[in-house]
C-alpha cells in the first residue's frame, strides 16, 4: 500500500545496502522524510526478516517490519557479476549510498568509496562502522552489545545502585542512536551538495557516536581538567528519580518549583507540607530531601493515576502516567498520534508506528508498507533500465 504524500526528501534516491538495526533505522528515517529508498538485499534477504515470527511468511518477521516501511526491496546477488552490474546502474542514479558492512567486505564486492565515486562523482557515501578508523579498535567487528560494553552504558545503573547488574539497558540503543547519527549525517551532506554540487564520504563510527550520546551529561564533574566534581550527572543518577505509586498504577511527577510540589502534596492530603513539623525538623539538607520524597509518595498514593492526570493538568503540575513497556500500546495519546493498524499483504493486519516528525508543507507518511523480499525488483529494474539476468 502506498500514499501520495511527499515528504521533504522527495526526489532523493537512497541506495541502501544496510542490515541489522543501525542502517535500516537510518534509511527508514530517510524514507519517512520522502526519499526513495531502494533496499538492496542478498538472495537470503535482510537477516532481520527472520527475527521473530510472522503470521505466514518466514521473511516478514516483526523486527524487519518495524524497520522496513517506506522502502522498495530489490534482490541482487552481489557475489555475481550480474548483481554487481545492476548495482552499478542503481548507483549511477543515486544520491546517497549507505551501508554498514565492514570496510574490507564492501571493498571486496567492488563498492568501496573510490569505486562508487568513480561511478557517481557527486555521490554521498555513508559508511557506518564500529570504530573510528584512526583508533586502535579500527576494523574490529561491532554489534550493539559490544558497542554498549565499550561505551560505559553497562555501568549506568551501577551509579544509582551499586548492586545493579552490570549489563546493557534493555534496548538496541547503540544501533538506534548511531542510526540517528547516520540519518543526520546524510542530511548534512545533502545540504553541502545543494550548495556546492559536491558529494563526499561520510564515516559514522558507532562507538564514538554512542559514547558521545551517553556521556553528554555524565562527564559532568570531569568536564574540566582537573575535575570540578564527581563523574555522573547528579540529578540523573539520584535514587529518587523514579515514579510514584498511585492507587492503581504509577505516576512520574517533576515539579518545576517548590510551589508546584506544595500544590501536589496539598492535592494529596498534605497541605502546608513545607511548613510541617516533619519537614522543618529534618536535621540536614539530605534529611529534608528524604522527607520531601516520602511526602510526595504518600500524596501520590491517595488517588488513581487517571485522577492525578486530570488534577496535574488542571493545576499545571508537570506529571505523566508511567507505563510499563507493554502498556504503551494502550496509551490514549500514543493511540491517537503514533500507532495505527494497517493491512500487510500476505500477512493480515499489523501494528505500524507513524513517522513521528511533523512538517506543515511536506508531510511525512507511511507511503509504502514493508515489502516482501525482492518485491520491487522488476519495478526498479524497469525504472533504471536494468535487464533482468
Question: What is the count of helical runs?
Answer: 16
**CATH homology superfamily of the largest domain:** Crotonobetainyl-coa:carnitine coa-transferase, domain 1
* Alpha carbon gyration radius: 25 Å
Low-confidence regions? none
Helix proportion range: 25-40%
Succession of helices and strands: EHEHEHEHHEHHHEHHEEHHHHEHEEH
Round the mean pLDDT to the nearest integer and report it: 96
What does this protein structure show overall?
Helix content is 39%, strand content 14%. 33% of the residues are buried. It has 389 residues and is an alpha/beta fold. It is elongated and about 85 Å long. The strands form three sheets. It has a six-stranded parallel β-sheet with strand order 3-2-1-4-5-6, with helices on both faces. A three-stranded antiparallel β-sheet has the order 7-8-9, covered by helices on one side. The protein contains 16 helices and eleven strands. The protein has helices at 22-32, 62-67, 81-92, 103-109, 113-119, 144-151, 156-160, 173-196, 206-218, 234-237, 258-267, 277-280, 285-300, 305-314, 332-337, 377-384; strands at 13-17, 36-41, 71-75, 96-99, 124-129, 200-205, 244-245, 250-253, 319-321, 339-344, 348-353. The protein folds into two domains: 13-215 and 332-384, Rossmann fold (3-Layer(aba) Sandwich), CATH 3.40.50.10540; 244-321, formyl-coa transferase, domain 3, CATH 3.30.1540. Helix 1 (22-32) crosses helix 8 and helix 6 crosses helix 9 (206-218). The two termini are 28 Å apart.
Amino acid at each position: 500500500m502506498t500514499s501520495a504524500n511527499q515528504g521533504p526528501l522527495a526526489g532523493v534516491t537512497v541506495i541502501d545496502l544496510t542490515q541489522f538495526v543501525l542502517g535500516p533505522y537510518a534509511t527508514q528515517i530517510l524514507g519517512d522524510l520522502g526519499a526513495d529508498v531502494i533496499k538492496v538485499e542478498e538472495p537470503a534477504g535482510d537477516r532481520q526478516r527472520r527475527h521473530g515470527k510472522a503470521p505466514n511468511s518466514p521473511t516478514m518477521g516483526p523486527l524487519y517490519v518495524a524497520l522496513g516501511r517506506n522502502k522498495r526491496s530489490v534482490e541482487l546477488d552481489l557475489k555475481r557479476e550480474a548483481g554487481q552490474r545492476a548495482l552499478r546502474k542503481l548507483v549511477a542514479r543515486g544520491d546517497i549510498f549507505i551501508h554498514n558492512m565492514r570496510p574490507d567486505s564492501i571493498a571486496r564486492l567492488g563498492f568501496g568509496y573510490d569505486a562508487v565515486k568513480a561511478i557517481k562523482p557527486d555521490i554521498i557515501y555513508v559508511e557506518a562502522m564500529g570504530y573510528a578508523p584512526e583508533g586502535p579498535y579500527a576494523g574490529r567487528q561491532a554489534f550493539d552489545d559490544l558497542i554498549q560494553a565499550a561505551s560505559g552504558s553497562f555501568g549506568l545503573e551501577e551509579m544509582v545502585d551499586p548492586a545493579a547488574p552490570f549489563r546493557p539497558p534493555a534496548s538496541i540503543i547503540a544501533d538506534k542512536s548511531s542510526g540517528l547519527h547516520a540519518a543526520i549525517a546524510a542530511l548534512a551532506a545533502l545540504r553541502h551538495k545543494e550548495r556546492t554540487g559536491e558529494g563526499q564520504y561520510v564515516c559514522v563510527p558507532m562507538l564514538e557516536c554512542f559514547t558521545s550520546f551517553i556521556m553528554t551529561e555524565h562527564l559532568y564533574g570531569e568536564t574540566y581538567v582537573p575535575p570540578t566534581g564527581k563523574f555522573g550527572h547528579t540529578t540523573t543518577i539520584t535514587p529518587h528519580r523514579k515514579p510514584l505509586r498511585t492507587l492503581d498504577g504509577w505516576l512520574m511527577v517533576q515539579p518545576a518549583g517548590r510551589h508546584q510540589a506544595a500544590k501536589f502534596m496539598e492535592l494529596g492530603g498534605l497541605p502546608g507540607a513545607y511548613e510541617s513539623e516533619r519537614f522543618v525538623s529534618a536535621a540536614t539538607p539530605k534529611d529534608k530531601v528524604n522527607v520531601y520524597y516520602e511526602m510526595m509518595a504518600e500524596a501520590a498514593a491517595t488517588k488513581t493515576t487517571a485522577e492525578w492526570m486530570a488534577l496535574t493538568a488542571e493545576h499545571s503540575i508537570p506529571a505523566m502516567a508511567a507505563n510499563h513497556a507493554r502498556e504503551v500500546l494502550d496509551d490514549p495519546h500514543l493511540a491517537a498520534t503514533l500507532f495505527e493498524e494497517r493491512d500487510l499483504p500476505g500477512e493480515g493486519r499489523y501494528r505500524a508506528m507513524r513517522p513521528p516528525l511533523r512538517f506543515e508543507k511536506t508531510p511525512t507518511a507511511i507511503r509504502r508498507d514493508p515489502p516482501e523480499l525482492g518485491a520491487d525488483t522488476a519495478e526498479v529494474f524497469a525504472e533504471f533500465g536494468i535487464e533482468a539476468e
